[in-house]
Hints:
Helix content is 26%, strand content 15%. It is α+β, with helices and mostly antiparallel strands. The protein has a 5-stranded antiparallel beta sheet with strand order 3-7-4-5-6, covered by helices on one side. Strands 1-2 form a two-stranded parallel sheet. The mean pLDDT is 90.
Amino acid sequence: MANWQTTRNVDNLTAQFNARWPARDKTSDGSIGDAAHQAESASGHNPDDTPGSHPSWDGDPDNTPEVRAKDVDSDLREPGTTMQMVVDHLIGLPGLSSVCRYLIYNRKMYHSRDGFSPTAYTGASAHTEHLHYEGAWTQAADNNSTYDFRLEEVGTMAEVDLTPAAVTAVANAVVSKVLGSSGPN
Length: 185
């Protein structure tokens, strides 16, 4: 399976995960399926335009072997932030169906055809160790490298107010406590 590539859409999501959680665990990350995966039923982990592969979709007009799925390890290494929080955030994003066909996480599938409402997932992997993301089945989705997944809005760091006014207020409170007064004069 040489010469395959992930779609720009999948690369974009991966880059945003890595930017938001640079220290996250990547043990369960993956894109292309192994030989056994290639031989079984259709999957976004299997490249299109590839003899012997079973991609979930092969309707794009190009002849480039592309993988449209990505697994992202569920351990974000940010205390208090869970992959379920990420899933809940993603399924609430406007226009998600323009780039995402479905997500699978923790025995649930969130499919665009169902408005991303959770349904039971009974596949061989429970997807508890990673989130599975599959890009929408369009050439426009394949090429989309700009969709903003707004991952900075997820988790414990998203709750920290770092606006200049908030930072000044905290600094003044610290000075006040240290000086025992109402702050700097």
